[in-house]
Amino acid sequence: MKRRRYEMEESDVRSAIEELSMFRKMKPDGDFVPAKPFLDVCNLILQILDKIGPTMTVLRQDINQNIQRLEKFCESDPPLFSNLVEILKKERDEGNARQVNSCSRAFVWLTRSMDFTVTLLQSLTKDPGKNMEQAVEESYNITLKPWHGWISAAAFKVALKLVPDNKTFISLLTEKDDNYEIIKEDIETLISLLLPLLEEIHSIMELHGLDKMKST
Length: 216
Fold this sequence. Notes:
By secondary structure, this protein is mainly alpha-helical. The protein has one domain: Orthogonal Bundle (Glycolipid transfer protein, GLTP). The chain has ten helices and no strands. It has helices spanning 2-9, 12-26, 35-50, 57-76, 84-94, 103-126, 132-143, 150-159, 166-173, 180-207. The chain is globular and about 50 Å long.
C-alpha cells in the first residue's frame, strides 16, 4: 500500500493526463462542464503547482478555497453536480454571479489557474534553458496579473524570488526511472489535452459574461 501511495505522488503529470483523457470522453459538446472531473483536474493541477514551492502558496490557497466552494455548493444541490454550467446560469439569473463567494467566481479563478499552469509548462517545454523565475513571471503576467489587484500582484512579485531552478522543478515532476525526454513528452501531452478544454471553458465564461471578472 505504501508503494502505491509513493507512485501516485510521483506521477502528477501522468495522473493529470489520465483525468483529462477521461474528462474529454465524458464531456459532450456544447455548454457542458461535468463538475467531478473538472474538480479532479483542478486538484491535480494543484499538485503540479506544489512543485514550484512557496511562490505558489497564495495561488494554492485560492485554488483550494474555490474547489471547496464548488464542492460544497454541488453537495447542497446534487443535480447541479452533473454540469457546472447550470450553476453559472442559476447565479446569473439570480444576480449573484459576481459576489465574492459565488461559484461563478470560483469557476473563473480555477480556470485562470489552469491558464497559468499550461502557459508555464508551454514556456518550459519550448525553451528548456529559460530561467525559471522568468518563465513563472511571464506566465503570471499573461494569465493572472491582468485580473489581479495591486496587492495580489505585489505579493506575487515578492514571492517570485523563491522559485526553484528549472532542473529542480523538472526533477520534481519526473518519476524515478524517467529522463527529461520522457517527462517533456508527458507535459506536451498534458498541454494538448488542456488547451482545447480551456478554449471551450473560456467560451462558456464569455457566453455568461464572466470573462472580464477581476479580483476583489
